[in-house]
Give the backbone structure.
Amino acid sequence: MGRLRSLVLVALLLGGTFVLAGAGIDRDDSGRGMLGTPIDTFSTFEIGSLYNVYPTHTDTLPVYLHTDSLVTYIECHIYWKDNDLELDTVLAGPGIPIPATLNYSGPNDSTAVIEISYPNNPFEIPDGEPIAYLVFEVQCYGYGTQTPIKFTNNASENVFVCNGVLYSPFQRLDGVMWTAYEYNCSIYGETVPAYVGEQHITMPYYLDQAIPGKLLCVHFLYSSQDLHFDSVTVGDDLMPGDEVYAEENDTLKIMLPETNEFLMPGELNVFNLHFSLKVGTDPLTAYVVPKIAERLDECGGIKTPSKLYDIIYVPIHTATADLGDVSYYASAETYDVWVKMGSNNPINDYKLWIDFPEDTISFDTIVAYGDFTPPLAQLSGDSTKLVVTADDPTNYPPSAPTVVFKIRFDRLIYLPVGTVVPIKFYDSEQNHISYNMDDPFDWHKADMTLLDGKITIVSTPHNHCPTLFVWNGTAFEQENTILAECDGKVVENDVTDYYLVSRTVPIPDGALRFQIREDSEEISRFSDFRLLVVDHPRKRPIQVTREGEIITIGQPHSIIWAKDHKGNDITELIATKDAVPYMSTESGWFDVNFGKVSPEEIEGFAVLSIDKPKDPEIPDNLTATDLPRNTKLDVSMKLADGSWRLIAREDARLVPGSQATMIDPALVNPETDLVLRYSWDDYYKIDFLDFRTAEPFEGKPIELDLASADHSAAGEVRTMLGDKDMDAPVTLVRGEAIDLAFDISSLPPYSRNTKRDYIFIATGQYHKEGKEGTPRAEFALDANFPNPFNPVTTIRYNLPTSSYVELRIYDVRGALVRTLVTGHQAAGEKQVSWDGRLDSGLTAASGVYFYQLKTDSFKKTRKMILLR
């Protein structure tokens, strides 16, 4: 050993410089030659302890002097078992000042004498700070074994000087080093699922160890009748330059050279085995069993790790094709039936025979969906069956049944409400869904489940506004109409509708999903969709006003009396939530007296709350389902002179719910009763209303980002929304819809006593056909927006009549780049997006492109520029 040496302490340790002291520093006892060393009962020397250290590694032990005294000199003698530890050096600790000198010497290989001196400047040792560090190289004295590090028993050898007097601390607390215990050492792989006949199967193998070591070899047995061994590769946790290779004779032997680096404890990926399946059968279980393994530790010991066998398994190859159940209104002329496909293997090829009543509907085209490759489709020879065949190449990844394309049918005859049109799979042995097993000539057919579908004709709702739907995790459920302010009139500018969602809004796939549908003859135009999330105490409900102000609903005021326009007392009917509503089948009004109310009592706000009745079968507030259009609820307030002032005109939504009417406190006269009048035209039904105090909502709503907006005809239109300078908003005509998804990543969790409400905000307008702002009476192809663009642009066009349409994109050479639309379309304004991709799916280069609209009687071409 004999490696003890003096040390110059540098600024990297404590930010300053230590001066080397010579050996034999004077104890500064003023030459008094003290025969004995007094004991300081308030001071202690201590050596720290370390656990879980590794042999051949270097570890550091702290040395402490715990004292409240000012010191100028410290000396301690420490020893240990020489075969267990080798002292590498001694470092000064942060407990002594930087100008102090430190010297250590080693009379033999198992002892160290440490001297610290700062003779002219007494210093205080901060509580808990070491005065020195012992740096040891741990020897191979065993695993899970301890070795002590001690102070000598001689008090005069472990001392410090305070005020010129030499003291020995009352206690000397020894330290210990415990080496790590090897409680675990195992080699194992992962159980790996595989596809039928797969040729590229990777099985990772791991070394799990509690002390540093290196794996030397592993012998495997495996199911050679099922598997072919291909290769072995270095694992992710081996060190750069490490190697692994294989020998195969009677067994598979994986070898890792001793030149590889030692690995620290943990679960470590040391190599990966790669196999191919020899057969294309299912189900299949192929075993890979480690039989012999050796692991070398840092002290040269060889250990056999415990081993676990693993398997490569191939489940039964299953696939599902599901024809959707869809509903359309009697006015619809085309029907899109979605097709879901799913498999536990990739889908590379399929053929599906589909039967439909050819005297009722006819096949039109296949509609691509998402990023999936659409199939080819044609009628069979007798034109009674539709044959759908995978286009080459098709590669649907393994998944649960997912919509991959839609089949569009045209109506041949008028279908009344209640009609069910069956769409079925034809019983044919040619139906198949296949995986090619990594070999273009070797296919494996799945065990198929074929689910039939249908088209159901439903009644058109008696509303004229676009309708909001909420995704419930399985389907979209109708919520309510939006843009109700436009109902019955032509508007020149956008209106913004703030709607408090009444349904529970689940988040089944990490997003909040809504849908906007246009089911009437209206033309809806939207320039923005927003969603606010409002968390509030459950006992303090919220409402949103027509102006978008969020308010907290307070306590109700009693109704003194209520009388309708015929003088009938209707107090009990509208003051109680029950199954008996007040209803009028003619134009009229009723007056409600709330007694004397001061501006201070209503805290600046008053709310008319119209709630849903307990019985969901009974209509609740503003309208019945057959309410004529242009019918709204006028709310007026009786002034002191007996006249009436209109304070609000509430919208008549399809599904009435709670609505808030705000009252200006300045209008409230505390000397007279507050009387409100509610008047209507033609028809009115209400179950319950009350007058409540309210105040501004004190919390902070969270606005979610719109993640996607998928137009049923135009594709992705999110980039067209929210731009105030945009002069071409997103348009909906009858039968079209927009699917919206809002990103929830910014949503915080909420507590049990908190209720989460959603305020859906739509900005836009709509018009009835034949009025201003409706579709043009001629064919038109408008300029794309934006232009130039990157990477998405939207193309708008108009069809005055139902037409066969082709919309294609060409490059400057006239070569076809992308086909966007082919097939019959109903009359109306249309829009479609181009994402800058070719028909092949590749990305188009920057440059000039031309888009051309062609019908039987119209053809026009325009230019656009793609800038990447």
Summary: The chain is about 0% helix and 50% strand. The radius of gyration is 42 Å.
